[in-house]
Amino acid sequence: MADATATSYQLLDGKKLADEIKSEIAAEVSGITAGGKRAPHLAAILVGNDGGSLTYVGHKVKACEQVGFKSTLLHFTDTSITEEFLLNEVKKLNEDPEIDGFIVQLPLPKHIDADKVLMAVDPAKDVDGFHPVNVGKTTLGLSSFVSATPLGITKILERYNIETSGKHCVVIGRSNIVGRPISILLNGTGKTGNATVTVCHSRTANLKEITLQADIIIAALGKPEFLTGDMVKEGVVIVDVGTSRVDDPTAKAGWRLKGDVNFAEVSKKASAITPVPGGVGPMTVVSLLLNTLKAYKQHA
Amino acid sequence: MADATATSYQLLDGKKLADEIKSEIAAEVSGITAGGKRAPHLAAILVGNDGGSLTYVGHKVKACEQVGFKSTLLHFTDTSITEEFLLNEVKKLNEDPEIDGFIVQLPLPKHIDADKVLMAVDPAKDVDGFHPVNVGKTTLGLSSFVSATPLGITKILERYNIETSGKHCVVIGRSNIVGRPISILLNGTGKTGNATVTVCHSRTANLKEITLQADIIIAALGKPEFLTGDMVKEGVVIVDVGTSRVDDPTAKAGWRLKGDVNFAEVSKKASAITPVPGGVGPMTVVSLLLNTLKAYKQHA
Questions:
Q1: Chain A residues with a Cβ under 8 Å from any Cβ in chain B
Q2: What is the pLDDT of residues B245-255, one digit of tens each?
Q3: Catalytic residue among B100, B126, B128, B260
Q4: What is the DSSP string of A151-192?
């Protein structure tokens, strides 16, 4: 008989939660359109034919369809388009009253200044939450568009009733799109806030000493199976943001997604843990939908 | 004979450092004006007659004079001025090519929405660094105006060669004007960055356990002499941001400034420590001058 404590963790099922939230959004959109109003409308700009980018944008378009949003994909296959041309496309989307929000899929070709393009997006339509105004408002605790991954993490914590107030959260990684914003949110005064937050990164001297103190760990450093069982305490809550592709000849694609957490080891001590895949990933697309719905309501 | 270890700390003398930096700025301004160009120009908007605000603005105007900046004080003694009127004054300063930067001294009368006024300041002239665009850029690690107190703290660490990389910094307090931004800067990739940073606050459960681990403590919670000797480890670096007025019948003013740190106790264990007064305080005014000089250079 298996050791009961070894499998007593709660799986933080991002796939299931994402489906639930999509159903809620779909119901709300049905109500909106039944009342005679137009549906929310998300646009995406994609330049080139990067396989990853095509896949990501495809997921986003499909998710729009699932919830009844209108979506528009501006796909410029010619990677030699100028920055000026792209800035003009952004301007047109900014000015189009039928577009509630839009994203510019990264990466952009190297001759285009991505920061400049992202800065050109109207903050009121910046559903990716990458514009400094939205980052600044998030930092200041004001209403803003929070970018997809950190927003998705807060939704997981919220919906699974993970208490953050007064807890010690350790965030591993300090990227602008995950580590930094989630640390600010956990440390803020919002619903999934009021935690004591430590941000660790590649320069951290005594990482294990710190992770061993954590009540909640957000692993977002991008190193497959980095966080091992000996680095966490009993009862810890784990959110695994890693999505590294590792070679796997037995998989159909020749690779599999691996998180930053050694699931087999860490799940034995965790009270709750996200899987990879099926954890944070599905929640990021849903977060984009939530932001688009928010933008729609602000325009309406 | 006194115990030698009891007085072996380095005093992080903000007053002395502020004077040094002011001399450097004055020399630079002399060079600028000697070359026939106009001097940098800082403006301040002050509404009402709050004693504290008058004092602070007075310090800023005086500091401008000391370094050769031009300064303009728009003092509206009538607290019944409308928000619209004030927004129009902000607009005029935004549009005035002779003004490099300006501040709106807080607090404003209650009938005026301070957030709205601060949002109206051109980010390129926002030398207080309060506009969400500047907060966002700071958070993203982009060039920005960092607000005065956190900028002053980084200057103290930098000029006194306090190593932050790989160190564990504990920030007590999560305010938008001190705790939050300094934690972001210490955790960033800049000169005084690359630290492992823990942000503690009123909801932190085990504060002493955390402060005992700190290599550097930024105390910014606003409770006089909160941090005591038993809460810190030997060799810690202390930056005391507290400036509480406490009654003192023996003082001429009837009160004295007290920091958040029990200096007598903590200095016995610290390797370096800021005094109050004469530590962070004088550096905040200098930071405003540094930001104004930066704005001037960006305009020129």
A1: 115, 131-142, 165-168, 174, 176, 180-181, 183-184, 187-188, 194-201, 203-206, 210
A2: 999 999 998 99
A3: B128
A4: HHHHHHHHHTT---TT-EEEEE---TTTHHHHHHHHHSSSTT
Query: Best residue in B172, B187, B209 to probe A by mutation, most A CBs within 10 Å?
Result: B187
Task: Give burial (CB, 10 Å; 0-12/13-18/19+) of B55.
Answer: exposed
C-alpha distance from B164 to closest chain A C-alpha (Å): 10
What residues of chain A lie within 8 A of the CB of B183, using their CB?
A: 187, 199
B10 is catalytic: no
CA-based R_g, chain B, Å: 20
The enclosing H or E element of B70 equals strand B70-76
B176: nearest CB among A135, A140, A200: A140
The verdict on a CB contact (< 8 Å) between A136 and B131 is: yes
Helices (H), chain B: 14-34, 51-67, 83-95, 114-120, 132-140, 148-159, 179-187, 207-211, 263-266, 280-299
- pLDDT tens, position by position, B220-243: 999 999 999 999 999 999 999 999
Contact at CB, B176 and A204, closer than 8 angstroms: no
For residue range B117-135, list pLDDT tens digits in order: 999 999 999 999 999 999 9
Using an 8 Å Cβ cutoff, are A53 and A22 in contact?
no
pTM: 0.94
Residues in chain B: 300
B257 DSSP β-pair partners: B245
CB neighbours of A251 closer than 8 A, spacing ≥ 6?
A: none
Q: How far is CA A244 from the centre of its chain?
A: 15
Average pLDDT, chain A: 95
pLDDT in tens, B194-219: 999 999 999 999 999 999 999 999 99
Q: Do B133 and A132 touch (CB under 8 A)?
A: yes
Identify the structural domains of chain A with CATH numbers, from first to last: 37-123 (3.40.50.10860), 147-281 (3.40.50.720)
Are A135 and B135 a contacting pair at CB < 8 A? yes
Contact state of B198 with A197 under an 8 Å Cβ cutoff: yes
Are A43 and A91 contacting, i.e. CB atoms less than 8 angstroms apart? Answer: no
Using a 10 angstrom Cβ sphere, with 0-12 exposed, 13-18 middle and 19 or more buried, the burial of residue A98 is exposed
Residues of A designated as active site? 60, 105, 128
Answer yes or no: is pLDDT of A5 > 80. Answer: no
Closest CA to B180 of B158, B153, B199: B199
